[in-house]
Amino acid sequence: MSSTTPTAENPIAPLHMLLILGVMLLWGINFAVAKIGLQQLPPIFLIACRFLLVALLLLPFAKRPTGQWGAIFAIAVTLGLLHFSFMFNGLKTIDAATAAIAIQLQVPFASLLAAIFFQDKLGWKRALGMAIAFLGVALIAGEPRLNGQYLALGFVIGASFIWSIANVQIKRLDHIDGFSLNAWVALFATPLLFGASALLEDGQIEALRQADFWAYFAVVYQAVVVVVIGYGYWYWLMRRYQINQIMPATLLVPPFGVLSGVIFLGENLTVNLIIGGLMTIVGVAIIIIRRPRTTAPEAERL
Predict the structure, then answer these.
(1) Which of 19, 31, 81, 179 is least enclosed, having the fewest CB within 10 Å?
(2) In which domain, by residue range, is 68 found?
């Protein structure tokens, strides 16, 4: 995908720095918000509702991806259907803090696939970062708090790998802005997700009837706050600063995600979680700082 970032590196204005921190905070809090929604709505059905609302909000402003319809649909399958279905099924069972850290493996996976598909030299430093990140998640996986919920953790790790595949697909696109990409992916993913929910889940209508304010708030927060507002400002910042200036800020999302679980859900902040989380963030930081373009900044995340 062609870059929209400026060629000159300008210092980030203080107000824009606060804006970046605000976006990272909104994205981090989403782990707790999504977890709250999953207490009342089936995972795939919740995601389908989120994408439906995103499509309704963004399609009126989306540019047509001429000649790339097939590629966009493929991304909708990978990112919209598979990634989010795996992610939310895992998040439904494990705590938000663990999910916020484990999903960061998408960056090491993306780095590995970039080396395979784009001949992006891996190098020993990024290889070390990958190893540290995986060891961090392994340390968290050994905690008693998981209580044998390894399948759910596997879903989150699987979601991170699927995201890295979508990352490769997105980087192969040409001349489409992030907002339009999210709009068309949402349009194609919505019927796929509702269909998957109908096949794999039950009780959706009853869940909607019994859902309280917070379940609906979770859907609206993810569509409006995370995508429309969060990504809206993110893409606006991408047009003003180089990727290597703003991508490191995404390292704040997992700490905010962990804190959101502790503050809003009463999750325990254990020593293993802190050490494993720090290891994962340090490993991801090495990769992002060495190759900020390893991940497509247009790719929608949780």
Answers:
(1) 19
(2) 14-294
End-to-end CA distance of the chain: 21
Q: Is residue 301 part of a domain?
A: no
Structural domain total, the chain: 1
Sign of dihedral through CA atoms 258, 255, 287, 115? positive
Is residue 6 in a domain?
A: no
What would you measure as the largest C-alpha separation in the chain, in angstroms? 54
What's the token pair of residue 285?
Answer: 């930081």
Full-model pTM? 0.93
Contact 33, 221 (CB under 8 A): yes
Using alpha carbons only, what angle is made at residue 112 by residues 108 and 118, rounded to the nearest 5 degrees? 130
pLDDT tens, residue by residue, 213-245 = 999 999 999 999 999 999 999 999 988 998 888
| Token duo for residue 74 | 């493929």
| Residue 231 lies inside a defined structural domain of this protein | yes
Rounded to an integer, what distance in angstroms lies between the CA atom of residue 283 and that of residue 278?
8
Residue located via tokens 């707790």? 32
Is pLDDT of 33 > 80?
Answer: yes
Instruction: Summarize pLDDT for 238-269 with one digit per residue, the tens.
Output: 889 988 889 999 999 999 999 999 999 999 99
Residue bearing tokens 């490191």:
248
